[in-house]
Amino acid sequence: MMSKVRVAGFFLVVALLAAALPALAKGSMPVTITGPGLPQAGVDISNMEQAAPFSMAALEDFDAGVIEQPAWAAEGSGYFLERYVMRGRVRQIFDHAVYYPHPGGLRGVVYYAGIHNGSSEYDGRWYYATPEGDRAMRALIAAHAGRAGGNPSRGWSFALRPD
């Protein structure tokens, strides 16, 4: 009797994990994006499906490896991403990154500032944006271009972090 309960419990846990793994694999996390032309308070994306292209490793092309900072990725011209994990209904800051669109329309780059109150081997390094992440960032920037209340001069650099 007891072994049947344990087996049933084991299969229940496996089923729950299998259901949760697709969401975890996507890596979706809420994000707030600030930068030139965006609203003063930033663009907050809480919908996990919409936030997916901005998530860690969805925006940064870690597979392409570390790159040198491009000359066109100038201080103050980037878009600061603050990404969160959810602890119940509470957001906790997970990490920070800065996206720089390529001025000639090619793939942008990302400075991965790092994990909040932690560290990883990716911290403090430059990466290309993934094609999907780059398209999502450009679409977000274009959606806010020319809107009243934008913040045309407030960009972020790899050295800046809001308090």
Task: Characterise the protein shown here.
The chain is α+β, with helices and mostly antiparallel strands. It has a single domain, classed as Immunoglobulin-like. Helix content is 26%, strand content 26%. It has 3 helices and 8 strands; from the N terminus they run αβββαββββαβ. β4 and β5 form a beta hairpin. The chain starts with a helix and ends in a 12-residue tail after the last strand. The C terminus is likely disordered.
Write the SSE topology.
Elements: H1 2-26, E1 31-34, E2 38-39, E3 43-45, H2 48-51, E4 79-87, E5 90-100, E6 109-115, E7 125-128, H3 131-144, E8 150-151
Antiparallel strand pairs: 1-3, 1-4, 2-8, 4-5, 5-6, 6-7
Kindly summarize this structure in a few lines:
With 163 residues, this protein is an alpha+beta fold. It has three helices and eight strands; from the N terminus they run αβββαββββαβ.
Structural class: alpha+beta
Helix content: 25-40%
Estimate nothing, just give the exact number of structural domains.
1
Strand content: 25-35%
| Assembly of the depicted chains | single chain
Largest sheet: 6 strands, antiparallel
> What distance separates the N and C termini?
57 Å
**The CATH class:** Mainly Beta
How many β-strand runs? Answer: 8
Radius of gyration: 19 Å
- Low-pLDDT regions: 5-26, 151-163
| Count of helical regions | 3
CATH topology: Immunoglobulin-like
Average pLDDT metric: 80
Offer a few descriptive terms:
163 residues; alpha+beta; Immunoglobulin-like; 6-stranded antiparallel β-sheet; two-stranded antiparallel ribbon; 3 helices; 26% helix; 26% strand; disordered C terminus
